[in-house]
Request: fold
Amino acid sequence: MPTAYPMLRVPRIPDKPRKHSMIVMSETCIPLRATEDLIEIAGSLIDYAKLTDHVGLVDRLEASWIRRKVALYNAHGIPVIPGGIPFQIAVMQGQEQAYLQAMVDLGYAGVEISEDTMPPLATARRRDLITRALDMGLKVMTEMGRKNVDIPFNAEEICEQILGDIELGVSKIYLESSEIQALYQAEPAALDKIAGLGRNEYLLFELGLINAQDKAAWLVERYGPEINFASVAPADVVAVDAIRRGVHRKGGYRYFAEMQG
Reply:
């Protein structure tokens, strides 16, 4: 389909399905009409839609509405995944099996098995939950780091767990935005160690709500435009894509330097 300016070029991103240059958008169960508007403008940029109205999903939104939401995204080639907080509530309330079954019944493409707010799971139990979800046909996303940054971030242990999760069959691994916020300001070498694993197709660097576009610009500059982003708000999707391509103020309009050679 011809664009409005077919005579011009900007850096391209791969066609879907992508392993690199991905965006996992997080949205708080916005209305279906707003979802349609978002897909119209930015659907080609969104690799997964993540639903993060955690209270609403438990206490307000009907299952039939979630199925309609999932079907709308799926019709445009966008798989849907849940946020990790309800999983953690399910574990603490002894409802993890029922929760995993609900993910299947609602039509989610996968499940987030995270422990960034709850007490960390024992290794054997965590592995069992990942295996159970995979056996049920769900893709599994895991997460490294803590929302409240209340446990020291040990890059060596994180790298070991990332490699172990990949071996188990985990599809994608989030790096918690709160940890990135702290590390990119104070200890970027820890992030360098993780990026240096050479498994970046599995990694999703969360941008979150704080300085998301500045964080995206720093990450692209340090690790390159193929980096995968998660926790991208709907309002930031287009800007984050432009930052990646070097055609945005936050990224210093890097593409102009590239055109000059």
Remarks:
- Strands lie at 23-27, 48-51, 80-82, 110-113, 139-144, 172-175, 203-206, 229-232.
